[in-house]
Specification:
The longest helix has 15 residues, at 55-69. A three-stranded parallel sheet has the order 1-2-3. 55% of the residues lie in helices and 7% in strands. The protein is mostly helical. It has helices at residues 15-24, 36-47, 55-69, 83-93, 98-105, 109-123, 128-137, and strands spanning 7-10, 28-31, 52-53. It contains seven helices and three strands; from the N terminus they run βαβαβααααα.
């Protein structure tokens, strides 16, 4: 059910397990030994409709995806996104939340949500993590880029 907001608490942090969980539709992924405040923050974020993976787990997954993308980059490939959608996607891939994206780009939260929706439709993905992984796989974003 796409409307379900599921958070996985797991002892597993292997990239393939996390990616499979994302593909299955989870909205949050945390290690079992996460502190109470992180759990509360994640529950609140997922309740708002955000997608949240514990930063250390997300970093491992994104680094694995980056490694897989090395050598597969096709900078001449047609990118179906507008420049502003690409800017949002780059920030999403760097782990920036919607509030900060709106501030950095001097746009409204509503505009951020609309651009994310458009990105999801164009890339045929369901959430920000899948969009970030898609961009990494296609070499559209570089995790080494500093945050603007």
């Amino acid at each position: 059910n796409p409307a379900a907001r599921i958070i996985a608490l797991s002892m597993h942090q292997q990239e393939d397990i996390v990616i499979d969980a994302v593909k299955a539709g989870i909205r949050g992924y945390l290690s079992k030994n996460v502190n109470a405040q992180t759990l509360i923050t994640t529950i609140e974020a997922v309740a708002r409709g955000d997608f949240l993976i514990e930063p250390m787990i997300a970093l491992k997954v994104l680094n694995e995806m980056r490694q897989a993308a090395v050598g597969k980059r096709d900078h001449n490939a047609v990118v179906p996104l507008t420049a502003s959608e690409m800017a949002v996607l780059r920030l999403v891939a760097q782990g920036v939340d919607n509030d900060l994206i709106a501030q950095k780009m001097t746009i409204s939260m509503h505009t951020v949500a609309n651009r994310l929706r458009s990105i999801y439709e164009k890339l045929h993905v369901n959430n920000r993590t899948q969009a970030a992984l898609y961009a990494l796989r296609h070499g559209w974003v570089d995790l080494e880029e500093p945050l603007d």
